[in-house]
Design a protein that fits this description.
This protein has 176 residues and is α+β, with helices and mostly antiparallel strands. The chain is built from 1 helix and 12 strands; from the N terminus they run αββββββββββββ. The radius of gyration is 22 Å and the shape is elongated.
Length: 176
């Protein structure tokens, strides 16, 4: 094999290695900065998101806007700050939330929640939500370990990983 042919082969191999390294770097940055994937381990968000579902979490959703009531978010559980939970934002900073007579009320008004299949089976609160904090609940209200029961009732905005936007397994659907 002559030198020109060897150089051409080495150049081709280096081009492939460079392409693979760039693709891996882009994938790593995207998964750490832009999006992440999560698998739902429990029934707490049924019937919206079923146990075993896989979701894409938008990590930059709240860089350009504030979290809103009704958003489904991934966050660090406030009682250990390591475990990742997936719940729905129910009450915003400065609001008072309580459960009474089977309904969830914010500032005294019952929420219209088309995503909830059954009423809550016990009263809770009232809880005042501090600044930069959020009150979370699962959609499967009577089978959800959520803000009602935690020692630290609220999730700090800085502990929200991102907004669940898309389910890709076992079916494909948007989550808004």
């Amino acid at each position: 094999m002559n030198n020109d042919k060897k150089k051409k082969i080495i150049s081709e191999i280096l081009d492939w290695i460079k392409t693979i390294v760039i693709a891996l770097a882009v994938g790593f940055v995207a998964s750490k900065v832009l999006i992440t994937s999560a698998q739902v381990p429990t029934r707490s968000m049924e019937d919206t998101v079923m146990a075993g579902s896989r979701l894409l979490i938008n990590r930059v959703a709240y860089a350009v806007s504030e979290p809103k009531r009704g958003d489904i978010v991934a966050f660090y559980y406030p009682d250990d700050e390591e475990t990742v939970y997936l719940k729905r934002i129910i009450a915003l900073p400065g609001e008072t939330v309580e459960g009474r007579d089977g309904k969830v009320c914010v500032d005294g008004e019952p929420l219209e929640e088309e995503y909830v299949a059954e009423e809550i089976d016990s009263d809770f609160g009232p809880f005042y939500v501090p600044e930069n904090m959020y009150f979370m609940m699962g959609d499967n209200r009577n089978d959800s370990w959520d803000s009602r029961f935690w020692e630290h009732k609220f999730v700090a905005k800085k502990k929200i990983i991102g907004k669940a936007e898309f389910e890709y397994f076992p079916k494909i659907k948007l989550l808004f």
